[in-house]
Amino acid sequence: MRRRTAAALIGMLVLACRGSLSPLSNRLQVGKEPYLVLAGDGEDHQGDLFASPAGGGVMFQVTFTRVDERLPALSPDGTMLAFIRSVPGSAGGSLVVMNLLNGAERRGVLSGPAPDALAWARDGSRVFVRSDDVRWTAVPPGEMVFAGVSVAERPTVDSLFRTLLGDPPIGEAVACDSAGLCVRMGDGTQQPLTAMGRFPRAWSGDSIVYQSGEEWVVRPLGGGRVRRLAWTRPAAQLREVTVFGGR
User: Fold this and answer.
1) What residues does 236 pair with on adjacent strands?
2) CA distance linking residue 25 with residue 113, whole number of Å
3) Is 138 within 8 Å of 144 (Cβ atoms)?
4) Beta strand pairing status for 105-110 and 93-99?
5) What whole-number distance in Å separates Cα of residue 49 and Cα of residue 35?
6) How far apart are CA 164 and CA 183, in angstroms?
7) Whole-model pTM?
8) Could you read off the pLDDT of 68-124 as tens digits, one per residue?
9) 3-state secondary structure the chain
10) How confident is the model at residue 18 (pLDDT cuts 50, 70, 90)?
């Protein structure tokens, strides 16, 4: 069954779109300053992607379509944005990699179960896609070539989908056994973070960002001031955040 599912996922049609202007031109210093991208409701209440400086404030729309866009994932250097584009209710969709320096897109059209998470290789060379119990990879430069993940490589790939906290990691953000978010330490013990948290992502240093109710919270794990992100005109139903820490 898994082989048939993996084969269906790998079967795809490669498409390419050229861009000429990044939606973030003259708005953010892409690849330099810290910023984040979130999914939210756009036109016709379908998912679109929105970006803002790491401190909040102004929110800029990144995608402008009438289909659903979700699961944003910024590359390690902050210049590429991977996400899923699909028609609501349909399976699969497209893996899209947008160059945020010039707006160019590359797309690979997928079949099979809808993906539930994306992750970049640490060197930015590949995008990994998770769908149910299947892991596979796409190489965005040039043609979008899809392939399955080998058994030997899978532990490394699976670690990319985890929200590891600290450098070196001191723990991992996980759903608590009861409710909310916890930090699971190296010895397996859990320390509660919040009773309402979801969509956790590692922030710079030892901090974590997550959604709590309608708020987005940045919390240092080693003590310090907890911040709440605020935007002047936020998109509705914000969800699914990805972060670039700057350089």
Assistant:
1) 41
2) 35
3) yes
4) antiparallel
5) 13
6) 9
7) 0.88
8) 999 999 999 999 999 999 887 676 789 999 999 999 999 888 877 788 999 999 999
9) CHHHHHHHHHCCEEEEECCCCCCCCCCCCCCCCCEEEEEEECHHHCEEEEEEECCCECCEECCCCCCEEEEEEECCCCCEEEEEEECCCCCCEEEEEEECCCCCEEEEEECCCCCCEEEECCCCCCEEEEECCEEEEEECCCCCEEEECCCCCHHHHHHHCCEEECCCCCEEEEECCCCCEEEEECCCCEEEEECCEEEEEECCCCEEEEEECCEEEEEECCCCCCEEECECCCCEEEEEEEEECCC
10) very low
Sign of CA pseudo-dihedral 247, 217, 173, 188: positive
- Residue at 194: amino acid letter: T
Read off the tokens for 220: 């240092």
> What is the rounded distance in angstroms from the CA atom of residue 212 to the CA atom of residue 7?
38
Closest CA to 173 of 219, 131, 214, 129: 219
Q: Are 195 and 179 in contact (CB under 8 A)?
A: yes
Are 37 and 81 within 8 A, CB to CB?
yes
